[in-house]
Structure formats: C-alpha cells, structure tokens
Amino acid sequence: QVHLVESGGGLVQAGGSLRLSCATSGLAFANYNMAWFRQAPGKQRELVAAITAGGSTNYLDSVKGRFTISRDNAKNPVYLQMNSLQPEDTAVYYCNYRYNPAPWGQGTQVTVSS
User: pLDDT band for position 73 (50/70/90)?
Assistant: First the structure.
C-alpha cells in the first residue's frame, strides 16, 4: 500500500508563508500527475494545485499568483509554496496522485490568523 506523508504546515499570520512537502514510499512521483488538495472545517475537499509529469501546472483561482506547486523528479518530493496566506486558506492540506488517488494521508494543518 502507498503511504503518503505531508509536512510543513503550521500557524501563521495573514500575509505569511509556508512550504508544504509531500513524500511517498510507493509509486515514484516522476511518472504521475500530482496534486495538492485541502479541506476546511465543514467543507468538502477541493483541488488546490496540480502538476503533470512534464511540469505543467494548474491552480484553484483563489490561490493563483500566491501558491506554487513544484516537483523534484530526481529526489521525488512534491512541494507547495504558499505565500500571502489568508485566513480563508485555513484547512488541512493533502497531497495525492491526481487521477488515481492512493489512500489519503493524515494531511498537514495550515492555520492562518487575522
């Protein structure tokens, strides 16, 4: 079974930055489209950012220009750089394969205060 592990979350003030990391002991990321998702309290999980095996990216409109998804194929991790964080970004953030999800990890909590 694939194990996905997210890290890098924390508590920041509005305008702050965090860098999330995703690692796996399963399938290599280099050959798959990957994505970051988030789930806020009382809300459904939503796609935040995605990156293809070739490096093309897409973003949720509300984070475009503030968040950057990237990958290191040689070392395998996937990252989400989050700048200019807003309270609306508060959620648990998860990574996964975009089109054939593995079991969800525990995610990493991002909390943005006013």
Answer: low
